[in-house]
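Below is our example:
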Amino acid sequence: MAVDAAWGSAEGFTSAGATRVMGAACRAAGLDDRGAELIRLGENALFRLASAPVIVRVARGEEWLPKARTEVAVSRWLGGEGFPAARVIEDLEQPVLIDGHPVTFWHLIVEGDRKATYGELGGILRDLHSLSVPGGLQLPSFEPFDKQELRLNRAVVPEDDKTFLRKRWRELRDKYAELRFETPKGPVHGDAHVQNLMVNDQGQVILIDFEAFCFDHPEWDLMVTSVEHHSLGWQTNEQYADFVAAYGRDLYDWEGYETLRGLQEFGMTTWLMQNVREDEATAAEYRRRIAGLRNDDGPRDWRPDGAW
């Protein structure tokens, strides 16, 4: 289904264009998009419908279609396991492709009056990593570089930044090739920060956002909070201690931590880089992050709002 031929690429992924795709997807699914609210523009655009308890998720481009299919399959698997996770709308065929943008539909999670804690994040990751992936569920390996080339090619940032980022990308790939894990592979969320937990109005902690879900080593999930604490200082010592106690491991003690730190910070910067045209606050935060990457030993004054 075509929406706006001038808007069909991820290069033009804006809130206005995503709204048009969301409307077309809702009409195709028999849903009413009137009064829908954009609640997040990041790797995807997320909309809350006013007409039904549904979240509509619009991806940046057709390259994200395999990930959208993984999200749907993982949600259905975790639902069958009774694991507290976001649920797709079961009676809709999805993902649907609208003007080159994969779209999925999710049950709205009615939030309670508090946010999830870092201890709860550690606990839910421990439980997730203990699950056995069924043979019929095909999951990719964790690939820290899978979106970087697209991001670098399409970003509206100075060429000097792109040159630096491509050089850093090559350096990180060399370091990544030398990583040696001692843990067995299993289900990995792939983007395991505390903002990907929600607490519903019944007090249940629910895992969301399965776009990066994969079958790999659990260190990839631990790296997020570990880097946020040890490098960026986004948690108090007490919050991080709760996370470590709940999970049972501090990744900082592992010899591969510095490589994972570099990968994490690079990904956080290139993710934000995609939205520099949205507003000045986003552009300013990108400038802080690229400056931080240029000085590995300097302090990080990055802001957590909209980190991913």
About this structure: The beta strands are 37-41, 44-48, 54-59, 96-98, 101-107, 186-188, 197-199, 205-207, 214-216.
